[in-house]
Amino acid sequence: MKKKEFSGSPLIEVKHLKKYFNVPAGTNHAVDDVSFTIHKGETLGVVGESGCGKSTLGRTIIRLLEATDGQVLLEGKDITHVQGEALKKVREQVQIIFQDPYSSLNPRLDISRTIKEPLKRSGRFRSRAELMKETAELMDLVGIDERLREAYPHELDGGRRQRVGIARALALRPKFIVCDEPVSALDVSIQAQVLNLLMDLQDEMGMAYMFVTHDLSVVRHISDNICVMYLGQLVEKCSTQELFSNNLHPYTKALLSAIPSTDVHNPMKRIQLKGEIASPINPKPGCRFASRCPHAADACREPQQLVEVSENHFVSCCRVAEIN
Amino acid sequence: MMAKEKINETTNKKRKKQSRFISTFKRVFETVPAKTGGILLIFIIALCVLAPVFAGCDPNEMDMANALAKPSLQHLCGTDNLGRDQWARILYGGRYSLALGIIGSLFAAVGGTSLGVIAGYFGGQTENLIMRFCDVWSAIPGTLLCIVISTALGPGFFNTIIALSIGAVPNGARMTRGQILAERTKEYLEAAEAMNCSKVSIMFKHLLPNVISPTIVGTTMGIGATITQAATLSYIGLGVQPPTPEWGAMLSAGKSYVTSFPHLLLYPGIAIGLTTLAINLMGDGLRDALDPKLRK
To answer: What's the family (chain A) (predicted)?
Structure first.
């Protein structure tokens, strides 16, 4: 676990971001009023179960999806609705690493062409020699052997493919990268390699990550701060250390109790959640976790606010004082 | 100094571009079947282009005394009911049939694929509009549509090609769109968007190469059908006008003699079959050459 101090103006500021999808059954509130900030060099982990809107959040921030409401500021500038040339500039500064290295690389492009694509699009490199040099540098940076330049994605294993994905994201030296579960499709041994690569690159180049995952041990390893998401909303947000030692929201407690323990003398005490997960389609006002929460009360039917209970520790639960 | 570098760059670029094209071209003919297909097609085209050399006589010269003659040394493929030399007619007819078949199928493939890619990539209302339009389009029988268009545009080589290709467009569009449905959720398209690729470049550079294989096979298989379709047109007085020879027209003219003089049907049939086979073999080679997974 790293410990870093972040101050000054934030790199990314997300304000009341909402992303709704219209589906036949109603409106799917995939991301509902999410706010947070990320500083330069920071890694923000976003955890939550499948379908809670983590990936949608990441994609909305970097403009692969259009936000329904709210704002995303990049270095103080609103990028939520920029178009044309301005959007191009934004996309050179924010990038994404995808979950599945088997579908995130175009099977018809070889490795060097995949990495070269963003370089070419940027128009920063005039000559072929420059492009070649930069491609080689990127491949070296992420640890892909030079002899694989003309290999195609299907000839590589998952770890190497993911490295190509990382090289492509890094190509234009972005300031912010959304890592959308970049290691969940990899073997555990390869996971560690890729995580360490990501951390080394961050130390070297100083970009910020938003690390989306459902793997708590991974997020503990890499994050400075963590957001816990449940059905499109943030329920708790604090530093990694705080989250694992002094978590306050009942959902976070249940989530963390699911981490397997290797200590035979102190077996895990799992908090079993009962009840169905509520639907994100036309959700009722009030706490979305209430239907499964062992501490639910009448007050939970009111809309919940994310409140700062101690320094840099936000919880969205009206009964937080009584529970803890 | 600068200028010199610039020249170097452009020549480098040219060389690289060329070498990729040439290496793909070489890979097409790597396998024995594709090589056979290529040689066969070149052979057929050469015969047709050099028809005056190999035919030995005028394809429209009638010799009623020798009408319906069996194949002999004098008439390699026999003669038809008007005593015209079949061999000469096949060679001369190939000029039209090959051009109509190949260009017509190519037009249909380009049109169908473009519509399919646009529909599949944009989805939603655009897709609905294009695909419903294709449904209506393909509800009209192909032959009928072909005749209507041909009548409206009048005879002529280019008009005939349009008439021939237009019936096959909806099928191509549907096939391409179906392929794209499986492909469009893949993350490499999002990645392309995130690196500022334009929509056109995503559609035609990233998406198209991954969905083109069935279209290549379908198109090469369809060339034979297009040639016979052209015959339908000339049969009712549209398309290529008699007495200009053309393979499909020879087939339909010969069909009344199928029991007594099968050679009238046999030789044009073989010509169409061989051409389709040759192009199909080459099409397979092209498909494999474009697929990096099949590289050695």
So the answer is: Belongs to the ABC transporter superfamily.
Task: For residue B189, give the nearest of B202, B179, B178 by alpha carbon.
Answer: B202
User: Any CB–CB contact under 8 A between A196 and chain B?
Assistant: no
CA-based nearest residue to B119, from B101, B142, B144, B137: B137
Asked if the Cβ–Cβ distance from A91 to B196 is below 8 Å, we say yes
Tell me what pLDDT residue B17 has.
55
Mean pLDDT for each 10-residue chunk of chain B (296 residues)?
49 56 81 89 91 79 74 76 83 89 92 94 92 92 87 85 90 92 90 90 90 88 83 76 81 82 86 89 87 75
Chain A residue closest in CA terms to B193: A64
Q: What is the pLDDT of residue B66?
A: 75
Q: Cβ B210–A106 below 8 Å, yes or no?
A: yes
| Alpha carbon of A246: minimum distance to chain B alpha carbons (Å) | 37
CB contact under 8 A, B197 and A95: no
Chain A CA closest to residue B11: A128
Which residue bears the tokens 């473009």? B114
* CB proximity A105 to B under 8 Å: yes
Domain at B85-289: CATH code: 1.10.3720.10
A210 vs B: CB within 8 A: no
The secondary element (H helix, E strand) that includes residue B272 is helix B263-290
Q: Which of A48, A83, A95, A51 is nearest to A236 (CA)?
A: A48
Structure tokens at B19: 């070498």
Residue B111 is predicted with a pLDDT of 94
Which residue of chain A comes nearest to B14, CA vs CA?
A128
Residues sharing a CB contact under 8 Å with residue A322, sequence separation 6 or more, in sequence order: A295
Please give the DSSP secondary-structure letter assigned to residue A246: S
Write out chain A residues lying below 8 Å of B195, CB-based: 91, 95, 117-118, 121, 168, 171-172
pLDDT single digits (tens) A85-105 = 899 999 999 999 999 888 999
In eight-state DSSP terms, residue A148 is: G
**Dihedral in degrees, nearest 10, Cα atoms A8, A10, A16, A21:** -170
